[in-house]
Write a structure and sequence with these properties.
Elements (H helix, E strand, L loop, with lengths): L1 H29 L4 E2 L3 E2 L7 H10 L3 E8 L2 E8 L8 E9 L3 E9 L15 E7 L4 E4 L1
Parallel strand pairs: 6-8
Antiparallel strand pairs: 1-5, 2-7, 3-4, 4-7, 5-6
Protein name: PrcB C-terminal domain-containing protein
Organism: [Ruminococcus] torques
Length: 139
Amino acid sequence: MKNKKQKGILAVFLLCVCFFISGCITRIEKEQKRKDLEYILIDQEHLPEEMTEVLGQLKKKAFHFVYSDQGKTYLAEGYGACPTTGYTIEVKKLYETEHAVCLNTSLMGPATGEETKEITTFPYIVVEISETEKEVMFD
């Protein structure tokens, strides 16, 4: 009896492992990069008014935000409070998969020797792309 029970548990375990592995492979295949996306970096003066208001509220903490208006989609990513001036954000990757748009950015501190001021800043970046209905993934 004990041996049958152990074999049953082992069989269920192996089925679960096979299911998990096949699920991962399917997800990777579905989410492969299709193409890089063209984008424009948008400064605060050129943002839609509604978006400016929301960003003003969100910027004190790290955030991700997507906003669509008049045929354009805006992807915003903020890094929260930084202790000095001189921080910049770089777009590392922006691409499309079958089901999503993926944005990867990086926060870079002040350059060595750069003159900074000891004031709290809230760096964020806004990227404009053509309007999309796809899910946006921030990485």
